[in-house]
């Protein structure tokens, strides 16, 4: 990219002003400081600002003085422009080293927003535009605004998930710790084909694939598909469950095959974990990167949780990722509809399917109940028998991207996905090891938390596992009316208090 700024002009007040390649000045040539002051006075408060265009730095100077506690993310067109401004604009050089100001190039926009804009910490966010900068590249600015909107939607979705599950995850993780047992190099028959059974309606038609090939396949069921398979007399070699909600324990109602291996996310429903452990099943605990799980591993000094990718948060994706990391080169996926097939959302016999049917009566049929679920979000028709939503379509895209990024070719034939490991990306099995959690050590370290240097500081440090660990719980608190306006430090202390309390119960 060509540099946006080409030279330096001087204002009537004898201040340097950068000049765009169009020859226009980046700010007022009459009195740039007064212009900047008026800009700041017209700006409403926010916890974090995204400023499009740094210019001479006068606007940023006034904004930072007016809002000293705010964070500022300042975007420029390129690294070359940033270097030019640092060399020629004294205010940019001074402001660029301030801890609450980050100046970055446009190609890092998404990364910077995802890293820095954490609604749990910064409840309010504002986008500001340096008018001259946006006018200089008017058409491109439209694209930038669209990109910002897309990233903010992603952040909003993530925050909504964390605020809903933050408390549930924290409590489940701590309740599940006693069930973490030592496992050394658990062998799996990776020479077979791994069959992943998801719970979409097409499983009703494709489950027979397992029966026809039972001797040659290793069956990995998602939690939701477990009961439908058992009702068909199909034994599951392994079961994957990542859902932290209480409803997930209903997927294991009735008898559980003691020979089945269970892969639970460490934040999965603790009652489901306890029931499985009491049944004598071997359990591998995984994590998709929950910061509290990472902190516990940090304290324990060992890797206790198997790393899994769940894509956009789906158990199907977690099951596929487990098969790949375990070393299976051939993977077949059943019941991954990524849509509503034949007016149904789940295979027959799943807990959720039974729940829908239990609510049937003469006035409210299954179809009526299902439609109420369906039409919470707009539907897109794929075929005569199948519809999808924006969310489900994102799951499909995430699945296909995962396959390509992990060295698999992907085929889809009659609702059956087949994944083949590419020769050049030969499968390498990740050892299925697990180390138990030293609860005595965890309790001992936890006692020292309030005095830890990372908890005494008022500032958030994303490099500290002690601070990032509690972000989901803080997000949960932030959504509560009584806590919504409290400062980050107060919420951090509440999250810490909850953690200490539950640790004492171990």
Task: Describe the protein's architecture and organization.
Strands 12-11-10-9-8-7-13-18-17 form a nine-stranded mixed β-sheet. A four-stranded parallel β-sheet has the order 5-4-3-6. Strands 14-16-15 form a three-stranded antiparallel β-sheet. By secondary structure, the protein is α/β, with parallel strands linked by helices. It has helices spanning about 30-40, 60-65, 80-90, 90-95, 110-115, 130-135, 140-175, 205, 210, 225-230, 270-280, 290-300, 315-325, 350-360, 365-375, 390-405, 440-445, 455, 465-470, 470-480, 490-505, and strands spanning about 5-10, 15-20, 50, 70-75, 100-105, 125-130, 195, 215-220, 240, 260-265, 285, 305, 330-335, 340, 380, 385-390, 410-415, 415-420. The chain contains 21 helices and 18 strands. The protein starts with a strand and ends with a helix. Mean pLDDT is about 90; it is low at about 350-375.
